[in-house]
Specification:
six-stranded mixed sheet; zinc; fructokinase; five-stranded mixed sheet; magnesium; 11 strands; 21% strand; alpha/beta; ATPase_NBD
Length: 296
């Protein structure tokens, strides 16, 4: 018999909330706008409480936007840390869900959940080292090493890796300027070119700059981590033809320094789970594949 799990992909724009079974089938699904913590969490609870009367839900998996507090010794363990998302800083999200629903809550960041799902069921299967990166409103990344999500002093913040740029192309990150998020995220493209990315022509120079930035980022990942897969997702990567240009540019930057057992276009790939990587990641966490949890 299938077991049932609550799975939440908590994003800065919306919460995708699902009831899923161990066969990865979605039984019920709703999308809740991310407004204030009180309003959003209340709607999440209103979705799950009737389902608890119909199904024996084993646990809840939460793959959340961050930063998240993953320090087990912290009083905000499982909560949102300081974030630019209005009113969400220090929201005890996991604790609240645990207390209100009476379910064990297994949690991590949305991108850590996504790389876990891709490792279990997608492009990163059988990889010793794999990376998942989403480039959209912001830039986030998760790393899996020998089957374990990599978290040290904090969860990876690869979007804030500094990149070389021309002096006349300063980035827009309020903290670091020329980091990947400050150069390649959707809002940064708009600030640089005074136009939304989706409105830019196919031959606009912005797209070659995107290729250069993302290829430099992939170069840094390859020489640092040696990943067998770099999985690139997010809204910016939906631009037709963009992903295919990154591997050749990265190869040029590596300049024959490494002899790799795979070609770069086999390493730098799109997600195989599409826009459900985060939701499947929440399911993977609920099924006990992560390392962070709050029990009743």
């Amino acid at each position: 018999m299938s077991e049932y799990y609550a799975a939440i992909e908590a994003g800065g724009t919306k919460f995708n909330c699902a009831l899923m079974n161990s066969n990865r089938e979605i039984i019920e699904l709703t999308r809740i706008a991310t407004t204030t913590p009180q309003e959003t969490i209340s709607q999440v609870l209103a979705f799950y409480r009737p389902l608890q009367a119909l199904y024996k839900i084993k646990s809840l998996g939460l793959a959340s936007f961050g930063p998240m507090d993953l320090n087990a010794n912290s009083g905000n363990y499982g909560g949102i840390a300081k974030t630019p998302k209005p009113s969400w800083s220090y929201t005890p999200l996991s604790q609240k869900l645990n207390a209100e629903l009476g379910l064990p809550v297994f949690f991590d960041t949305d991108v850590n959940g996504a790389i876990l799902a891709e490792y279990l069921w997608g492009k990163a299967q059988n990889s010793k080292v794999a990376v998942y990166v989403t480039i959209g409103t912001g830039v986030g990344g998760g790393i899996i090493v020998n089957g374990h999500i990599l978290n040290g002093l904090h969860h990876p913040e690869m979007g804030h890796m500094l990149l070389p740029t021309k002096e006349d192309n300063n980035g827009h990150c309020p903290f670091h300027g020329n980091c990947l998020e400050g150069l390649a995220a959707g809002p940064s493209i708009q600030k640089t070119w005074q136009e939304k990315a989706e409105n830019l022509a196919d031959d606009h120079p912005a797209w070659q700059q995107q290729v250069d930035h993302i290829a430099a980022f992939c170069h840094n990942l390859i020489v640092t981590l040696g990943p067998e897969k770099i999985i690139l997702g997010g809204g910016v990567l939906q631009k037709p033809g963009l992903l295919e240009k990154i591997a050749p540019q990265c190869e040029e930057k590596l300049n024959q320094y490494l002899t790799l057992p795979q070609t770069l276009d086999e390493i730098i790939v799109a997600p195989s789970l599409g826009d459900k990587s985060g939701l499947y990641g929440a399911l993977a966490l609920a099924m006990g594949h992560g390392s962070h949890q709050i029990n009743c």
